[in-house]
Design brief:
The protein contains three helices and seven strands; from the N terminus they run ααββαβββββ. By secondary structure, the chain is an alpha+beta fold.
């Protein structure tokens, strides 16, 4: 009889812990904010996909708040030096530690408006790494052999 009571109590405790785990997960999902993907990401992909004449006008992306676009290629994480103010890309992504991504940073002279982590396989901006372009001068041309872009001089 004692074993039966202990077994039942153990079973009740296990079921209670299981139910508590389910409940806490549901609360966690309601409380934790979901990450918001920048709309620029999809707009850049669409711009690249509809690029028929070999040019890419980045000024079409985002709001009018940004005045320059800066490029960081693989292994170049010096965003503060490039932007001219204190903002560290390493606080937001680790993508530049590998070969597969570029980051485009849309900024004003004082702060970052938005940034895009762009897979190099769908638009390679590595040739522009370490440079910034003014919004009015942010049209790029694509290479005929690949999806790589460079500044239109």
């Amino acid at each position: 009889m004692k074993k039966l009571v202990i077994s039942l109590l153990s079973m009740v405790c296990l079921i209670g812990m299981f139910m508590l785990g389910i409940y806490s997960h549901k609360v966690y999902l309601r409380v934790m904010p979901k990450p918001v993907l920048p709309k620029h990401d999809y707009a850049l992909w669409k711009l690249i996909n509809t690029n028929e004449n070999g040019t890419l006008n980045l000024a079409k992306l985002g709001s009018q708040a940004w005045t320059k676009v800066c490029f960081l290629g693989p292994y170049n994480e010096d965003s503060a030096g490039l932007l001219g103010f204190d903002w560290n890309i390493k606080d937001y992504t680790k993508a530049l530690r590998f070969d597969g991504h570029n980051v485009l940073i849309f900024a004003s002279n004082e702060h970052v408006i938005d940034f895009i982590v762009q897979p190099r396989s769908h638009g390679d901006f590595a040739e522009l790494s370490g440079t910034c372009l003014a919004r009015e001068n942010s049209t790029l041309v694509s290479s005929t052999q690949s999806h790589s872009y460079k500044h239109r001089n």
